[in-house]
Specification:
Distance between the termini: 52 Å
Strand order of the largest sheet: 4-6-5-8-9
Helix content: 55-70%
Subcellular location: Cell inner membrane; Cell membrane
Number of strands: 9
Largest sheet: 5 strands, mixed
Catalytic activity: Na(+)(in) + 2 H(+)(out) = Na(+)(out) + 2 H(+)(in)
Family: In the N-terminal section; belongs to the NhaA Na(+)/H(+) (TC 2.A.33) antiporter family.
Membrane topology: Multi-pass membrane protein
Main location: membrane
Shape: globular
Oligomer: single chain
Amino acid sequence: MLRAFLRTEAGSTSVLLVATALALIWANSPWGGTYEAFWHTSMGISFGGAEFSLDLRHWVNDGLMTVFFFLIGLEVSYEVRLGQLRDRRLIAVPAVAAFGGMLVPAGVYLLLNYGGPGAGGWGVPIATDTAFVLGLLAVVGARCPDPLRAFLLTLAIVDDVLAIIIIAIFYTDELSVTALITAAVLLAAIMTLRWLKIWRAPAYIVLGFALWVATLESGIHPTLIGIALGVLVFVYAPTDHKLLLAGEAVQEFTSEPSARAAREAALRVQRAVSVNERLQLRLHPWSSYVIVPVFALANAGVQLDGETLRAAVTSPVAIGVALGLLLGKFAGISLGTWLPLRLGWGVLPGNLVWGQLLGGAAVSGIGFTVALFIVDLAFAGSDLHAPAKIGILAGSLLSAGMGWLIFRLAWDRGGVCAPPEAEPAEDLPTTLAVPVGPGDHVRGPADARVTLVEYGDFECPYCGRLHPILEEVLRKNPDVRLVFRHFPLRTLHPRANAAAIVAEAAADRGRFWEMHDILYDNQRFLTDADLEHYAAELDVDPWSDVSRHAARIAVDETSGRDSGVRGTPTLFVNGVRYEGGHDLDSITRAVEESRESA
């Protein structure tokens, strides 16, 4: 679920960027006057004498964005019950970091605007834009490991929930008691249907729409209802019984294909997956590729002429928003991460290092969707509307640049996970410092004419690509053996060391190579729970003697550094560093040359 969410959000960033660019171009074109005129066009529903009407911008901000926050509610519900948020130790750090990442930016903004006309905009720099952040992390690539993405996604979920609460409490002007009571009754009706386990989509759609209208009329922003309804959607892990029924239905269809059997198989498979997950699968593309980009198109348009930019440069609102996002988010998240770790309130996923965390804190200053949302609430009809938007754009761009720089510096300080042609130029040894001995992990005959020594990292993607190639080399060359030595790049791959420890635990049972193959076949799934699962499959206690196994890994690392290893994978052929390509033909030629010269 988490990986699917990341792929969808990251992939939609380009669409969001295009929509933002179009809004800016439209607002600054010779037809710029039509931008506001278009989004203020009224559209409504009438039935007899009753009429409900909003302008297009409010339909987007109050209507479509309710679906966006509904999806956040679905994600919160899933993560709390089945995902990352089940483990309180993993929640504590990103939750406190999210709180710090809201409190400090608001404080930075108020330092410049307290008591002035822009004081009400303190909520603008508090929120992180998940889609833009995950999109930037996709560009960062290997510098940002999956545990950091998981940490930032958890932070973003808490951030969004807190932002909605702030909107409901501080950006609600007037309350209609009658509409509020109506909304409460409708919400109770929805909860009753859920309690009675009545799962009829039309009933929920009708009641949900009525609840949205009542909430809008009450004065509370309807996006709060979106997240509340998302949290209420039922989520469960597939039971063995449902999986068995689904398997039987699929088997029946396979043996006797028919329309009836196909329908039954589809229904059984669908019922095995919770409504929450099915809704996320269906709605995420609409939210990511339609709703959020349309929101950007409707709200990001701001005139960037000389007069507006000069006013923004001296505007405490624009400066407060930009500094709140750039410095406030960075300082707040960094402090909010350090404090719970210092006090022992929680742990980080995947043994993340501070270089990665600081990069994540910096890119979290990209505030866009919710920031623009709050601008519309705080400064509707005010001259401060444009400076606030300019502050969002400036702060977000600067935060992205600072995050990219920090990730680059953190990368350069760590090891290099790259093919040999990408390794840094350095005068390194060309021969193996420590010969193959009885303590090594060897696959192949003891009297082999050619020995390949690989320094590898179980989380390194290049090592993963090399793995089947080396297997093919061994299959085609019976006189070749492979020696594997550990070289985990902890800064870049926080799960690599734990995976190496589990491999060493398997070696105690004579099953190193079985674990070796499992780990490379499941490189993207190396959490502690995953590793324990693989160990259980091989009847291995993964954490039986961690200190001894860590010492064994350190021996490999020392031999690697003495041999000039700086990245993974690094190969030695009969004791000589291999400098060729990591493809089957190149390695086969090197093996043949070593065989002839042996």
